[in-house]
Amino acid sequence: MFLGYYRALLSIVDTPGIKLRKPNWIRMPSAMFIYGLVLLSYFLVTGGIIYDVIVEPPSIGSANDERGNPLPVVFLPYRVNGQYIMEGLASSFLFTLGGLGFIVLDRSFYSNSKGFPLLLQVCVGFGCILFSFVAVYFFLTMKLPGYPH
Questions:
Q1: pLDDT of the chain along its 149 residues, tens only?
Q2: Cα–Cα distance list, 106 to 46, 97, 98 (Å)
Q3: Contact of 102 with 125, CB cutoff 8 Å
Q4: Other residues' Cβ atoms within 10 Å of the Cβ of residue 38
Q5: 47 forms bridges with which residues in the sheet?
């Protein structure tokens, strides 16, 4: 059915006989370039860039101490669905660090290295994962005081 409409359109319209070629400066991007773009987009999306563009929150907040002096506040307390820009970037960095830890662990599984280099790769991978988990848990307890209980 679509082919019939296509033939009818081409019988009415005369298409020009242009031969297009790909420019020589366009190359296939490398795998690491695509990986970098995916990692950058993961960092921005987990950091809440869409929320930041729509809502336009401040980069950091402020709270008054007992004397009335303003203090900088990075985490928007008691609001799970709201954030400051720096809070989103810090959380996004930790999410990306944890993901990179899993990638390092995966690469160490397929590497040909033995002995200390393999042990170093595994330790770095587990360290990144453990550090990001503990730090995100700490951030969550700062955002929601009394969360685990």
A1: 788 888 887 778 777 788 888 889 999 999 999 999 999 999 999 999 999 999 999 999 998 999 989 999 998 888 888 899 999 999 999 999 999 999 999 999 888 888 898 999 999 999 999 999 999 999 998 888 887 76
A2: 22, 14, 13
A3: yes
A4: 10
A5: none
